[in-house]
Amino acid sequence: MIQLIASDLDGTILQNDAQAVSPRMIELIMELKQKGIRFVAASGRQYSNLRRLFEPIKDEISYIAENGSLCIHKGQVLSRGIIERELGLEILDSVKEYGKCDCFLSCESGGYMDSGNPEFIRHMTEVVKFDIRQVDSLKDIHEPFLKIAACSFSGTRDMAPFFKERFRGRINVVTSGNLWVDFIAPGANKGTALSNLLAHLDIQAKDCIAFGDQYNDVEMLQLAGASYAMSNAAPGIAYYSTYVTDSVEEVLEDLAASVGK
User: Fold this and answer.
1) How confident is the model at residue 23 (pLDDT cuts 50, 70, 90)?
2) Whole-number Å distance between alpha carbons of 211 and 230
3) pTM score, two decimals?
4) HEC letters along the chain
5) In the predicted model, what is the mean pLDDT of residues 153-163?
6) C-alpha torsion angle, residues 213, 215, 216, 217 (rounded to 10)
7) What pLDDT band is residue 16 in, cutting at 50, 70 and 90?
8) Which of 102, 116, 159, 241 has the fewest CB atoms in 10 Å of its CB?
9) How high is the pLDDT of residue 130?
10) Are 78 and 40 in contact (CB under 8 A)?
């Protein structure tokens, strides 16, 4: 019996660069909760940003933020993945060396950037609307690093192989959406975060459904008893999934209609 749904946001629930969750999706999540099925927003986005996206029901769902580096249920942090500081500083240097991208640093208190690129600043503050502070240098931040993210408006095709080769075996380097390469602590991913949440809620993985579209979703898709890759997912993602769908909303509509019959 399905007891929990975990879904990615960008490219999954949020299609075609959408920056708002549809009213019907909000209704479906609450309808399913009333039928005993919980919902988890699982994203590379910040916790505060996810709460903004789900504002009408922000206290009714659980969160896997920062690509699994932070798992929160009812305001309680169940798990966090911290990047070792010296490695984090090396990554920041490497991003500067690569040069064809901008950098965003996530900490539990919020996010930081030191970019002077107007396009990146506008994207972060006006499009995705992250909780973000401008600083002179990210290396001056002394809070624990949850995630470091490199953004290229040219896409990840060249950037991802560069960083994956540079840091192979030392840290998780994953593509997140079409613009981002994320660095997250070893052992931190959406799958481990979901596993921690399921254990806390005493729910078995076989009773979970997951949705995703990128390689940062793979561990979560593999863990869930049933999983859906989006039809426009990155090449190869369907291999890790049980099904393929055009719409999370359509699957949840069918689930809501069938539960309790």
Assistant:
1) very high
2) 7
3) 0.92
4) CCCEEEECCECCCECCCCCCCCHHHHHHHHHHHHCCCEEEEECCCCHHHHHHHCHHHCCCCEEEEHHHCEEEECCEEEEECCECHHHHHHHHHHHHHHCCCEEEEEECCEEEECCCCHHHHHHHHHHCCCCEEECCCHHHCCCCECEEEEECCCCCCCHHHHHHHHCCCCCEEEEECCCEEEEECCCCCHHHHHHHHHHHHCCCHHHEEEEECCHHHHHHHHHCCEEEEECCCCCCHHHHCCEEECCHHHHHHHHHHHCCC
5) 93
6) 50
7) confident
8) 116
9) 87
10) no
User: Which residue ranges make up each domain of the chain?
Assistant: 4-80+188-258, 85-184
β-partners of residue 243 are: 228
Give residue for tokens 């690569």.
Answer: 98
pLDDT digits (tens, 9 = 90+) for 49-63: 999 999 999 999 999
pLDDT tens, residue by residue, 77-105: 999 999 999 999 999 999 999 988 999 99
Instruction: Order across the sheet with 70-73: list the strands.
Output: 76-80, 70-73, 62-65, 38-42, 4-7, 208-212, 226-230, 243-245
Does CATH number 3.30.1240.10 belong to domain 85-184? yes
Task: Specify the residue for token string 């030191």.
Answer: 114
Amino acid at 106: S
Query: For 106-120, how does the pLDDT look when each residue is reduced to its tens digit (9 = 90+)?
Result: 999 999 999 989 999
> Of 260, 203, 179, which is closest to residue 38 (Cα–Cα)?
203
At residue 177, the pLDDT reads 75
Identify the CATH assignment for 4-80+188-258 out of 3.40.50.1000, 3.40.50.2300, 1.10.1240.10, 3.40.50.720.
3.40.50.1000
